Amino acid sequence: MNVLVFGTGIEFALVQALAEAGHQVYYYTDYLAPFPSFEDFGSGIGFSNIQKVHTFFDYVDKVDKIVSFDCYGGDVLEFLRSKGYDTFGGGRAVELELNRKLLKLVLKGVGVSQPDYKVVKGFDKIKPPAVVKLNIFRGSAETFTIQDEAEKRNIEVQLKREFGEFLNKVEFVVEQILDKDKYVEFGFDAVYNDGFQFPMLFGLEYKKGAYIGKVINALNELPSGFQDMILRLDLVLRKMRYKGFISAEAFLNPKQQREYYFLDITMRPPYPLGLGYRYAIQNFADVVLNDAKPVYRGRYYVAIPF
Prior knowledge:
Blueprint: E1 2-7, H1 12-20, E2 24-29, H2 38-41, E3 50-52, E4 65-68, H3 74-82, E5 87-88, H4 95-98, H5 100-110, E6 117-121, E7 130-134, E8 144-146, H6 149-163, E9 171-175, E10 184-193, E11 196-206, E12 210-216, H7 224-239, E13 243-252, E14 260-266, H8 277-280, H9 284-290, E15 300-303
């Protein structure tokens, strides 16, 4: 099969898996900048069955499938899907990851439990203690916690180097801090294709480092809170006609497993642990290219990034 991948370079291990399965991959990585860097383009050069391309749309009619393993260029994949091209990943559903204000509204609309929150415009409007999230520009600031005014002032100094005077015009999602002695952060990692595909992974991260996941073969094997969350998310993803990888995290009360609070979502493999899908999922290429259900090599998946 001929495949066109729209990417950023982070997904190269997954692109390589398609090539090693015998498929011809045309690989576009977004290198556009006032002074383009070879580093932004070079991922994939020199590997069998991978041809790097400078112009994405010159290849859309030369391939059988168009794939994205990241949350950028969603509008491109949505446009191509609307024109009848066979796609995997991307689409308008990626806005659930990039636009956290939109995500909050959508979750509220389908009844997914989430921490109390406010959307504020300007860093100066944030009132500690709080968990603070930013849209799109995660390279500028990942999610962070502010415990008090002193910590807020320190973080403000750091962020002003990035945003300058625009810092008090940026929109932030500000969440209530939950009691970490009462809740444990769990997550699921799955394929969505006209519904959540089983088996999927259910697991947890240890100190944002090691990930330990268990293969789950049916919805009723999950804690009841996660069952509820998945059924409600399905209403959203089905309406958006999403097809691709998905990962979500929530705080769960182990003593009352119906009690959960949704934390975050990725409309892609979660990086870096998702790069191991090519090894964990025995039929990885068929999942992406032929709508197959994933077949895991074992009962557990452990990822330790270096």
